[in-house]
Automatic annotation (TrEMBL):
Protein name (database record): Inner membrane transport protein YdhP
Main location: membrane
GO molecular function, one term: transmembrane transporter activity
Pfam families membership: MFS_1 (PF07690)
Domain Major facilitator superfamily (MFS) profile: 2-379
InterPro entries: MFS (IPR011701), MFS_dom (IPR020846), MFS_Efflux_Transporters (IPR050189), MFS_trans_sf (IPR036259)
Amino acid sequence: MPLALLALAVVAFGIGTTEFATMGLLPQIADGIGVSVPQAGNIVSAYALGVVVGAPVLTGIGARIPHKRLLLLLSGLFVLGNLASALAPGFGLLFAARFLAGLPHGALFGVGAVVASRLVAPDRAARAVSKMFLGLTIANIVGVPAGTALGQQLGWRAAYVAVAVIGLVALVALALFVPHQPRGPQTGVRHELRAMRNKQVAIGLATAVVGFGGFFAVYSYLVPMLTHLTGLSDSSTTLVLALYGVGMTVGTLVAGPLTDRALRPTLYAGLALMSSALVAFYFTVHSTVPALVTITLIGAMGALITTPVQMLLMAKAKDAPTMAAASNHSAFNLANAGGAWLGGVAISAGWGWASPSLVGAALGVAGLGLAFMGDFMDRGGSRSEVITGARPEQVAAPQSQSG
């Protein structure tokens, strides 16, 4: 079990590295393919678009494929997309390659979360899922700075080659350590889509888009906020981003056990504390030490939301959790786009560089309201069972924390 979870974490590490390292290499990419930096920024959008499209589409296509085989196929597509990115001669093909690299992102996380939850007893499922997510948070501490430095020293193409190598390592680890998990008797894209019609799934996805949008409203503008308001140099911001990753790692470690004990209260606490930290950052951003402490708290509370939302969606989708789990990562990418856009609107309106903090806090409170609404609606109907048993056909008894 630990080696299987480690293999899944390596997948998440590669995904986190390729997604965020691109942002730090935009000037080098722009020079390399002969476009402006804003135009090169469109390749970030291409990856996000690939995630949004690929999560439901690839999960639906693979609905009848055993989970381990599907993980291997998706990992192979991830490797192919990053190799194509490294070899792309111009902007058009690079845009297409980044879209291709983003396609397996959500499906890998969704299938991986279901596989991880079935490696352990039902009362430890969230801890297993959070251990997979650790790969994503550690990527922000190690993978992204290393990939950015590699791209700056050896050229941006080297960074994508390195990510492809990580993908190959993950593929081998998955083949060696992840056990075969047969699909249940009721499988197929129609079965998965029926589960997606559950109102609780829709509210859970909306909570992720709106609530996590608050996190990205600040994360997207963190560097200019630190240089303009805190007074840090450009060279120091990389270390601060790593500190953000440390906070996310701590939050992920805490989220697993708390979600296993009390899912909805963990989600409520994460959204409420993240919103409070974002309000505090509006005032602390002008002083170095308080700003750094608050940044760490924002990272931790943002990560605290991820696991309970993932487990909530898997619970509400009942015995077809894979597409719901994958669509969660489409929701996070929509949150990234929406939060960044609203934060930019506030800055452009002349509200100041600190204004994304208040925008983010408002989004966090709105997400909390959606989470409460989901709980209120749940009390009026049947509460969903958490499907996390060792075998797909084995249904765990209803647990109060899954509601």
